[in-house]
Specification:
alpha/beta, Rossmann fold, globular
Length: 149
């Protein structure tokens, strides 16, 4: 996909960011904005992340694993029940297999470790938003064609 097409596609992806560290939150807002995503809201704890997502209905929530109050796993589980169309990406300082497995059981779209490349964050958001768009699209039966040998 060309950079211009990528920017146009990303312009339609609505993202909410949640992190209790203002410097990280600001950096993510700048990073995703420059990449073309619509950052439609931010939150500084789990409870405000839930409210923001329920109010704004973004395509994707990128949430810090450890925040005051409600953890990212709890946020993801509650959103799954209340707003199942929103995809959740957990961004964590902990590269812990047990936490990753707990996140997968919810399930979440991705579990990324802070310090990963911006490209990994973009790919996770693109994939999460793409999965939503595919799932929400009308089902059109595929035609099976024989491929000549």
């Amino acid at each position: 996909m060309s950079a211009q097409l990528e920017q146009q596609w990303r312009a339609g992806v609505r993202v909410v960011l949640a992190d209790d560290e203002p410097t990280i939150l600001d950096a993510l807002v700048q990073l995703l904005g420059k990449a073309g995503y619509q950052v439609v809201g931010t939150a500084i704890n789990g409870a405000s992340a839930l409210k923001t997502v329920e109010d704004l209905r973004p395509d994707v929530l990128v949430v810090d694993f450890r925040m005051p109050g409600v953890t990212a796993i709890d946020v993801a589980a509650r959103l799954r029940a209340r707003v199942p169309e929103v995809r959740v990406i957990i961004l964590s300082a902990d590269d812990d297999a047990n936490l990753q497995m707990a996140a997968e059981r919810v399930p979440v779209a991705a579990y990324l470790v802070k310090g990963c490349s911006s490209l990994m964050i973009f790919r996770a958001i693109d994939q999460a938003a793409g999965l939503r768009k595919v799932r929400d699209a009308p089902c059109i039966p595929a035609r099976h064609h024989a491929i000549p040998a």
